[in-house]
Amino acid sequence: MPPAASAASAAPKNVRWVMLGIMLAMLLSMLDNMVVSTAMPTIVGQLGSLKYISWVVTAYTLITAITTPIWGKFGDLFGRKSMYLASIAVFIVGSALCGASQSMGQLIAFRVLQGVGAGGIGAGAFALIGVLVPPRERGKYQGMTASIMAIGTVGGPLLGGFVTGHFDWRWAFYINLPLGLVALVWLWLTLHVPAPRVEARIDWAGIGLLTLSITSIVLAATWAGSTYAWMSWQVLSLGAVAVTGLAAFISVEKRVAEPLLPLTVFTGHRNYPLSMVLTLAAGVVMFGAGLYLPLFQQDVQGASAANSGLLMLPMMIPVVIVSTVAGKVMSATGRYKIFPVVGAAFLTVGLGLLATMDTDTPVALTSLYMVLVGIGLGATLQMAGTIAQNSVSLRDMGAAMSSSNLFRTLGGSLGVAVFGSLFTRAVQSHPATGAGDAYLSAVSTGVSHIFLTGAIISAVAFAAALFVIEVPLKKAGPPTPAQTPTTTPITTSG
């Protein structure tokens, strides 16, 4: 066996315990937005300022998206463990301050701080998984990640409803404190990864330009079709700023010594940008289906809003099962291309069938279509991350995986914006007074347009999956401390 191969280690023996701590922190950030969304009517009732209600969610989502690549790069430079623990600590402090808010302005400001922590949790979780578990072994742990996503999607509304109904709304934030502290101590004791000492100047120009671009994209996606028309000067201006900012960002990243997002991760192997297409599409489907399927089932099919989280079970259970089975097959055989191809096909068919629903569609048939979508997500979402991980070097793992998380977030934001515009256009002439047949028909039409758009996006993902090259999965595990240089001198960012 070559020296390099013998030096490489497999996943640590306690990796499942470490992963459990990582997943607990990840669950916190996933649950938070859904729990808070459920508690918002009560929050507004006490704090007032109804006109600012959207910013409680928008501020959190925006800052999470902005800080995700920054945390990822800092993890590459200064040590992933220290950055991940710091992000959890920031999230805990932000949660405590949110719970203590005395006005809507304070709540929004503290949600920004909470979003900073959430950005680091999302970026760090996938980067740490990439370091701890080589791609060939990652399939063994895909079920854990998929389960966390399912729990976050289903459990968020249920937990939010329970907390709001039985406790003060402030506990929607305070509940993060004991769970966050457990995750913090757990990982401090169990997580052991190399922590290089780096002498570096931060790429402030890249951070500023990417922040400007992401802010413009997320605000345009949030406001378009709701606050402002799609072709309004406000939305068009934000689009122009985003395009200009991204062009300037790419120019800066080409010449700095230590770029925030190394362009080589996108140009080094074609599998990485293809995996980002899959990730973007999966983000669109996850957020869109999670928002509009319960709405259709409640408004049109008469399901109970109190059990809105349970309505997603026909979709989320297949996600967990298929992701786990696909991961085990991938680890055993080393083959993986078939899964995103089949998964994107299932997404396209499932969403196409959901687009055929009308006011007479029975719940059982809707659930069957949701199962098809769940199978597609289970075969696509986690596998896209593995393909991305297998396409980059360990040195750039944080930047690469944070980019993946960013694409998923942006996919969700853009998807919700476009879907919201389609839905609003369909129902704007039928106000929901009395829930008459005309309104129910309009809701059905709006939801059909949404899922037809999702099917088209999934078809694009299917085409991208066909072009994935099945590169042998890396077997090498994380480097040992002896293999990692203690100091990495890095020149200025310019």
What does this structure look like?
It contains 18 helices and two strands. It has a two-stranded parallel sheet with strand order 1-2. By secondary structure, it is mainly α. The chain starts with a helix and ends in a 5-residue tail after the last strand. The longest helix has 33 residues, at 15-47. Helix 3 (53-78) packs antiparallel against helix 17. The protein is globular, with a radius of gyration of 22 Å. The protein has helices at residues 3-7, 15-47, 53-78, 80-99, 104-132, 135-138, 142-166, 171-174, 176-190, 204-223, 233-255, 264-267, 271-299, 313-333, 338-354, 363-389, 397-427, 437-466; strands at 197-199, 487-489. Residues 1-11 and 477-494 have low confidence and may be disordered.
What brief labels describe this structure?
single chain; 494 residues; mainly alpha; two-stranded parallel sheet; 18 helices; disordered C terminus
Mind telling me the C-alpha Rg? 22 Å
Fraction of helical residues: over 70%
Please mark out the parts with pLDDT under 50 across 5 or more consecutive residues, or reply none. Answer: 1-11, 477-494
Q: Which shape, going by the Cα principal axes?
A: globular
Task: Describe how the helices and strands are arranged.
Elements: H1 3-7, H2 15-47, H3 53-78, H4 80-99, H5 104-132, H6 135-138, H7 142-166, H8 171-174, H9 176-190, E1 197-199, H10 204-223, H11 233-255, H12 264-267, H13 271-299, H14 313-333, H15 338-354, H16 363-389, H17 397-427, H18 437-466, E2 487-489
Parallel strand pairs: 1-2
Helix pairs in contact: 2-3, 2-5, 2-7, 2-9, 3-4, 3-5, 3-10, 3-17, 4-5, 4-9, 5-17, 7-14, 10-11, 10-17, 13-16, 13-17, 13-18, 14-16, 15-16, 15-18, 17-18
